[in-house]
Design goal:
The structure is a single chain. By secondary structure, the chain is an alpha+beta fold. It folds into two domains: 121 residues, 434 Repressor (Amino-terminal Domain) (Orthogonal Bundle); 140 residues, Umud Fragment, subunit A. 27% of the residues lie in helices and 25% in strands. The protein contains nine helices and ten strands. Strands 1, 2, 3, 4, 5, 6, 7, 8, 9 and 10 form a ten-stranded mixed beta sheet that branches.
């Protein structure tokens, strides 16, 4: 009787639960291996597949990235991605989408599944926009030592070849003007947290973290054994990264979106 009552509390008609289970079986992965792709445990995957606990928006984004077109539209729809979000990404993508029939994202969100195929495969990745701000040098950003655990505000979609490591790619906002004229206040940065090895980041724009200052966006430079965070704006001073300052590089900036939605690339 106890077991019967316990089972009755678990929903059995959750379409998203079946979709997740089908995706895992498509890739022939155990619940443990499948969960590792989303920084989740086998127990969490089991709860998803039983309909006992729905994935977070970030997990839905990553499920869609793994699934690929056309099933990705179903998972991205569960996370809140709308057709309008795609239109705001980049001018090149906007022109391409105008020539291609897309699956109706609103229908997908309504639970019809993603059975409609596009006339051309869309190599897109959904990127979580985090509720996180990286500040200019000299100002305080959000104190988030790990980007993966940060809450998701929204998401955008971008061409797959712009995101070499989708699982570790995310977006955050900029506060301040120390990176002007390259990156302005309010810009959105797309960053890859798997690229944090300082030996490979000389001259690259990075996200750095300090326990007293929080997140900072700057250009990273190496001079022999000295590591420095350089602003683009000459009004700001550089910061030396040493044992005393205890800075940590969290991610490399891949590209950014300005106020007119024109993407930029680091030099």
């Amino acid at each position: 009787m106890t077991q019967s009552r316990r089972k009755s509390k678990i929903p059995t008609n959750q379409e998203w639960a079946s979709a997740i289970s089908d995706l895992r079986r498509t890739f022939k992965l155990s619940q443990t291996s499948f969960g590792k792709k989303f920084h989740s445990s086998a127990m969490a995957v089991s709860r998803w597949e039983r309909g006992a606990h729905e994935p977070t928006a970030r997990s839905y984004i990553e499920l869609g990235n793994l699934a690929g077109d056309p099933i990705c539209w179903y998972f991205w729809g569960r996370a809140g991605l709308r057709h309008e979000d795609l239109m705001q990404v980049v001018p090149q993508l906007r022109r391409r989408l105008s020539q291609i029939k897309l699956p109706n994202i609103e229908v997908v969100r309504a639970g019809s599944g993603a059975k409609t195929l596009a006339t051309e495969k869309l190599q897109l990745i959904a990127i979580p926009l985090l509720k996180v701000v990286a500040a200019s040098l000299g100002e305080k950003g959000d104190n988030v030592p790990l980007l993966h655990g940060a809450p998701v505000e929204n998401m955008i979609a971008a061409p797959k070849d712009w995101c070499p490591n989708p699982v570790t790619t995310s977006c955050l906002r900029v506060k301040g003007d120390s990176m002007n004229p390259l990156i302005g206040d309010g810009y959105i940065l797309v960053v890859d947290s798997s690229q944090n090895d300082t030996a490979a980041l000389d001259r690259q724009i990075v996200i750095a973290w300090h326990k007293d200052i929080g997140l900072t966006v700057s250009r990273f430079r190496r001079y022999d054994h000295t590591e420095v965070l350089h602003p683009e704006n000459p009004k700001y001073e550089s910061v030396t990264m040493d044992a005393k300052n205890k800075w940590k590089i969290l991610a490399k900036v891949l590209w950014w979106i300005g106020k007119e939605n024109d993407p930029g690339q680091p030099n």
